[in-house]
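Batch job 17 of 40 flagged for manual review because the log was empty.
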Amino acid sequence: MTSKDHMARSMFLVILVMGLAFVSCESGNENIERITPVDYVDPLIDTHNSRWLYFSSASRPFGMVNLSPDTFVKGTWGSGYLYDTTYIRCLSHIHAWQMSGLAVMPMTGSMNGHLGMEAYKSKFSHDREMAKPGYHQVFLDRYQTNVELTSTTRVGFHQYTFPDSTSRYVIFDTGAFLAHSETSSSSVTKVSDQEITGYAVMAPTFRRPKPVKVYFVAQVSQPFVEFGGWKKKELLDGNIQFVSGPDAGAYMKFPEDLKQLKMKVAISYTSLENARNNLTIELPHWDFDRVVQESQSEWNHMLGRIAVEGGSHAQRVKFYTDLWHALLGRRIVSDVNGDYIDNTGAQATIRTVPLDETGEPRFAHHNFDAWWGSHWSLNILWSMVYPEIMDAFCNTMLNMYRDGGLIPRGPSGGNYTYVMIGDPAVSFFAASLNKGINHYDVSLAYEGLRKNAFVGGIRDHSGYENQKPAIGGGMRFYQERGYVPEGIDSVGFHQDGASMTLEYAYQDWCLAQIAKQLGQEEDHAYFLKRSENYKNLWNTKSNFMHPREMDGNWIENFTPVTDAFSARGFCESNSAIYTNYVPQDISGLTRLFGGSDNYINFLNNSFEIAENDWLKSANKIHAANWVDYGNQPGTGMAHIFNKTGAPWLSQKWVRRVKEIYGETSPYGGYHGDEDQGQMGALGVLMAIGLFSVDGSAASDPTYEITSPIFDQVVIKLDQDYYEGDSFIIETEDNSSENQYIQSATLNGQEWNRYWFDHEDFAKGGLLKLQLGPIPNKNWGKE
């Protein structure tokens, strides 16, 4: 895309937003139409280098259907919607962790769907495109057809406007390769001249070891005059009623005088009947505009739980786009009646989530990537603002524990994927339970989390290690030696002993906090002691966390940074970053450094070095820099200063990171893997000036304060969980220069701590911050 094109698009967005804010006077009364949170969201931010699950425009919060145009369809990374790609290859309905499916395409002229996407793709221009939460519009140049997309939670809704006097078709390329894997088989059946049904089977992937079947029911607003299909790029002869097999697909032909067509596509992972039920319950009508409006109303309800004033327009755009991502990528996979697929056993089994007294599901079942690193993002944000979402995900994990015997780490299609390392679910449960978010079987949760903390639990599975018994996670060594060495011989990935040791120690601490809440005193003492295992990697000569060989010696040729994806011993990172990975015991880490001055200098120097090239670790060179906010392991670093006696440095570096990652163009904003809302949630927390270095996992959770970028932040509290109505943060003299807290009050009382209790947050209150251009090094040290 040329700079001229980008400028045209930027001007279009500015005009669009300005057009939404107008003042009119009627009968002497001033009526103001306010810009809503949805109006600020820009789904195209940082889409130049996307990931299959990153972009989903026509989707509800956590929607089962994630409908959007795909410009490139092969690969888990570098696929989906890529901003600089000039062709749309299909419109597909599933953009999820290790799942994809149901590619469709309207076309005019000759029907060439059987020849594959490279034959039927269409050019498009961003000048004739609009994307916002719950809606995507794009014009297909080749077919002179305008496409509009929206959805309910489980039903995709299409609206096509065709040109005059030409043949028009809609194809279902059900056998197409999409993202992660081939489609091993598919089937499409004509039910009537306004309905087709079918299924597609996603072949196993390296990460998801079992196939996943998705069923669909598609209805069109006008009768089609012909139904046909193909297999292996050969059109089938005759008046067929169905087509099935590998590399198969189908088409519907419509009358040449048809101007506009609407199509509803409902999906289910359990059965055709449930797909039809999802359609009947969620979308019984044909009012496209109504569904667009309802989708945006739902998004505004969710995004509007945090209201901000002040800051620049670009900061508000990035803020609500971050928040949108935090509520988007981790998909619902249960039907409207609560049925979901359990793929943990030898055969896929349909199960049902618990129902309430009226027969309605108590929660939705979800599909999601690992919680790896979410203790510095989603765990904090969701537990503050969306506690019901925490409950739903905790219940999902407990369902999988009942079904398959392990609390999962990144389930996909009812499978265990064993993505990344450790047991990050324990910090998620700790943040939930310790804030009173506990609408699930707490005893069962503790049982499963405790199982994961020993040999045979999920920690023993290194990355994508599906074999049993698993050994790559090194729990035998961790239990015997207090650390995981390098050189374990297993089939898994991410066998990074130093990272495992440090993450296991933090996870032990989280488990100790849960044990304390539950009165498990022996367990509390045991896991609290084990949480000190990080000390077993401290090398007093280098003053870094240093990996150990199998014989216990330090690894040779050690360097804190290296130009690589991962330094030896470290998961997608290096020692310079992981040396700070002791969120449970910053005071203990400070003592290892020889005192707070030494540690502050080390940490500050790390940021000053990184400032020379903030994005050095971008493009997956995560071990190259001293600070990396493009990947999870280092995303708590700027906030650590609060806990070392230098809160002003947290204020400084949090603001600086926000500047670097505050871009709102298709070419910046995240500079790495946004990871299903994790980086979005982190951006939200930085913007509002609240954080929790220990991941809000303490038995008595607290929040640390930095300087918000807005004049006012109003967090609406869910009174099903919390006593208060809202928690408000107000700043005085806020600007890009005035980033340092001079003084503070909490509920009218002078406040000289850098933190406050979650209990105070839950009651509702007012935090006022006076900001200035020069650090007040005495504030926050009480």
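Reviewer: the log was empty due to a logging misconfiguration, but the result itself is present. The first strand starts at residue 22 and ends at 26. Unflagging and moving on to job 18.
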